[in-house]
Here is the input.
Amino acid sequence: VSSVLCPLTTSDYCLSNFTSLPFLKAPLPPLRRWYTDMFEQTLGVNESLLMHDVNGDLVRVRQDGGVPNLTVFDFGQNHTRDLFLSQVDRALESGITSFFLDKASTVAGPDTICNHVCGKITPQAAVAWNRGHEEVLRTVAEKSTGPTAGNGGSHLCTNTMGGCHATYTANKKGIEAFKADMNDIRVSSVLAQFSVTDDGYAAFLQGYTPGRAWLWWYSAAPQWIEAFDHKLGAPLGPSSLDGPVYSRKFATGAVVSFDTRSNTGHFDWSRCTA
Here is the structure.
């Protein structure tokens, strides 16, 4: 069971709204309510927990969907970090195991913090925010009992929190980059964005490691291809590269190949036993 958290703005637009599920340890209050509770703790006299610009006014940015005037958590402060992480604890106590941290790659500086629009801040505030933000990302990843990833590229995997969303191209360069990330001991989980096509899926499967990688596509519309209807089973070993063609065998007997000359994938189901 996973949740989407936004370690940047105080808007609940960045947070998934979950309902109770029968296998959770306790009935799960909608996480939007939790997030609203946290936001309400930053109002009035507690606005000091939010980012302020060089004039002492609240920093306000714009949500990706266009919602304006969103305030920003000041992760340079211990109290703000503790407040945010307390919501993570509440989620974990209710049975959520994993988080997708949107805006994880946001970096302040040297004297601004931005999301479509910018707020002018001091260089000292930018440094403190970046350090606090990274601490929040690492702590959420450490607390999670399941795979947790941040949005923003493979550097989050290797340098910050172990889990990331990263984009790869369905070609030799993309496959080798994905395999390199899978072979890096610092990487715990990757939401690998290949195209949801036979070619993208075949490229993904050349580097896929069970329990550490998932094919991922950022879209509000369902994405499905016919190959998803077939069982693969676990890979029987790493992919091999014979000239221009990658190939990998799976437990059901399926063989998945990718030809780097045409950047096309092929699925051989003829030997499948399941």
